[in-house]
Specification:
It is built from four helices and no strands. By secondary structure, the chain is mostly helical. The chain has a domain of 31 residues.
Length: 92
């Protein structure tokens, strides 16, 4: 009887048993720390993106005169191309 008891004790509490592994290394449902770190980094990156977006919301940069002039030229050229393609019809 003592032999059976000893066998049961050793089989339940072996240091390399699956239960011991799960008890020691399982972290919040993750079997491996690298998986935990990967999920943590995903959530930290998402939080960082939300924070960056909130801080930079509706921030407009200054437009130089050269950029304004280039945009005017582009708009005139675009209107000209639209008129040529539409046969000189009315502009919207």
């Amino acid at each position: 009887m003592a032999f059976l008891m000893e066998g049961c004790f050793l089989s339940q509490h072996r240091p390399n048993s699956r239960q011991d592994f799960e008890r020691r290394y399982k972290l919040n449902g993750f079997a491996d720390m690298s998986v935990f770190f990967a999920y943590s980094l995903v959530f930290l990156a998402a939080a960082g993106c939300v924070l960056y977006g909130a801080l930079n919301w509706n921030r407009e940069g200054e437009i130089s005169e050269a950029e304004k002039e280039e945009e005017r030229k582009w708009l005139k050229e675009e209107i000209k191309i639209d008129e040529e393609l539409s046969g000189g019809g009315s502009r919207v």
